[in-house]
Amino acid sequence: MSSRFSFNATDAHIIELSKYRQIAFPQNQRRPVQIGIDIGGSLAKVVWYSQNKNSYAATGGRLNFTKFETENIEKCIEFLKEIIKKDNNENGSMSKRILKATGGGAHKFNKLLNDELNVIVETEDEMECLIIGLNFLVHKIPYEVFTYSETEAEPMVFEEKVIDEEELYPYILVNIGSGVSIIKVTENGKFERIGGSSLGGGTLWGLLSLVTNAQTFDEMLELSKKGHNENVDMLVGDIYGGDYSKIGLKNTAIASSCGKIFRKKPEDRKKVKEEDISRSLLYMISNNLSQIAYLMAQLHQVKRIYFGGCFIRGHPVIMNSLSFGIRFWSKGTIKALFLRHEGYLGALGAFLKHHGNIQEQELLGFSENFTKAERINTTAVNAVGLIDIVPKLTYFPLISSDEYHPDTFDLTNPELQKYWIDTFDKNLHKMVDMALTWQSTHYVNNIENTKIFEDIYRKHLQVLRREPNAYGPLSVRSLLILREQCLHEMGFGDIFEHVKQEEKESALETLPNLLKKIDALPEYEKLGVLIDNVLAGNMFDWGANEVHNMLQKGELNFDSAKTKVKKSEKYFNLNEFRERLDSGPQHKRAVIFVDNSGADIVLGIIPFARYLLNRGTEVILAANTHPCVNDVTYTDLLEIIEKVCTFDDIINDAYNKFGRLMIHETGSGSPCLDLRNINCDLANVCESVDLVIIEGMGRAMHTNFHAKFICDSLKLAVFKNASVAKTLGGNMYDGICLFERGETSLGGIRAKARRSTFSEILETGRFSFSC
Ligand SMILES: Nc1ncnc2c1ncn2[C@@H]1O[C@H](COP(=O)(O)OP(=O)(O)OP(=O)(O)O)[C@@H](O)[C@H]1O
Ligand SMILES: CC(C)(CO)[C@@H](O)C(=O)NCCC(=O)O
């Protein structure tokens, strides 16, 4: 089967998930490079922090991952020397650094590391580091954990981040390195190594080195993919002539690994294919481990079994046989859990042991960055991976259900998958054109970077065509985020800046007159006109292909947009909103998640916000932190409001005098809105919000269309994509205005169990409620 795990690693422009796993630290974090290393019997794994200068996104830092064969420890040391030298050049020479090291090699090579690197090597316990690393990934990295089964249409099924401790403990970790350690974890900081096995990854590597001509472990695994184990394994059918149904053994079950070889004549034994024997040995090790893992879980009455260690390396056959074994032995009651950063648990744990890192995590958010454009360091076994470290994000406090999921469309349907991947592929050239224009207006002459951007994104799309869930569940949101990451990684900033600037200026010129006209309307007509204006403004969306074409040809202006947008038959209940405004208690505070710059924000949203302010409702405008398409960013919005303040007293007073108009950043850089990850300051000011307004196709259709809130909510958007319209039951350019009363408005109790934070979990080991 083709999969993300077999992507061509020699390609310099793309970070394949299994081999490049960076995790991205927030801006303004200046600190010396910190390194964690886990030197095992087979491989030395390195995790280090680097500042994220290359990226336009305001991500201040990044966790990088790489590994070397322990046999070549000197290459690893050279690599570490380079990292330290680079950091000395950038941040100034430091006094002796601390290197956090774990694994057997931290002891064995202690003196060598000390002498060669001129560092203080602090040795950390291997088992403890594995658990710290695992807990970090499970709590902090989106879609880190997944189950795997080839019998399902979609083999990889991702788990949400585990936030509550009760969900997590007790668990066992089966860490398959050279040898195997099995660790039971019952609560934060409480663990015990309950067993192990010497039949592990080193065993397979050793045996395959003996029976194949392959040079590297990866070549050996490749061989196993092509092999047929039934040529060497004795199956139940070989003994019974069919199934042994009485005890539930099918004829295809392996009765005796390698058990057919002894029957062969000595001259035929040499003809056994290396592919077949590789496959057989791989099953032998994996099946044995799944059985031991299950027995351990039984003995200790544990339901969660995580598999870690480089042995797994996202290899489908290994994962499938471990999964199958656990499912088989547990009669389907337990599922094997895998991790996308499975080989780095120990090194990550050692890294996090640097002073303050564990507490610090609570202040930070982490996102995965799949993209890197530098030439790969060829001395490493598998180059580097990336995790970006971003300012801390949190749950939006007004979501009413724990079932909240941002994405509206389930892209498990192959037709929809193809449609969306094709759509982004076809539109890519438009982004490239924008990137080129952006370069020319910034006097940057680096066509190569635009080409690399195009290349990287297209290659990611190719990966996704083969393995749609390679980077976590596929959604329109994930495709959009990936595109932004690729742009940012190549140093592109706000590539729609010129478009936004022009549209903003022209809209600001129109605004005073528009406000006058609205003010002159009879009171009962105002709301309808304001909502029409928001929907017309929302047409100015350079991210929607159809509209992009119109805008580029100059075929759209505010008036023509107003005639183009029709009211959706199915999703337009303005009257209910009007009735609520007229008869219910006045809303105290509204938050508006805004969308595009130009006419959208200036002629649509600002007059509507002004109307709410006039009615006595405070208004928070929540705009993206980072640029994406022509969405208005937090900094754009500050500028716009300051301009509006120069000619409109209502906005000026509310913003400058009374603080009744507030502007906040969402923490996002996407046209979609994931309300599980909102800037903490915004979440805090939204605690007292009783009206949530979400605007735009990305925020209110691709995402949040089904979101329910504990307070009143209003979704405003226009169908600008035919597939979205068809799937949701609307027509192209229908405007939706969806008002829904919240539990509080209906008299319900406003209460919600908040989620425990990671530091609480780590530090107190107790379950608690907090932001
Ligand atoms: N590119 C690779 N090169 C070598 N081994 C690999 C590679 N990819 C996966 N492996 C497998 O991973 C195993 C090593 O896993 P890991 O790095 O987790 O263990 P380790 O830390 O070296 O061992 P231990 O913890 O037992 O000391 C190897 O024995 C081999 O089976
Ligand atoms: C010796 C370690 C802990 C080194 O990581 C590992 O290789 C292992 O757990 N080996 C298995 C030893 C045993 O329990 O049989």
TrEMBL record:
Pathway: Cofactor biosynthesis; coenzyme A biosynthesis; CoA from (R)-pantothenate: step 1/5. Belongs to the type II pantothenate kinase family. This is pantothenate kinase. It is an enzyme of class 2 (transferase). It is found in: Cytoplasm. Transmembrane segments: none annotated. GO terms for cellular component: cytosol; nucleus. Gene3D superfamilies: 3.30.420.40, 3.30.420.510, AF1104-like (1.20.1700.10), Uncharacterised protein PF01937, DUF89, domain 3 (3.40.50.10880).
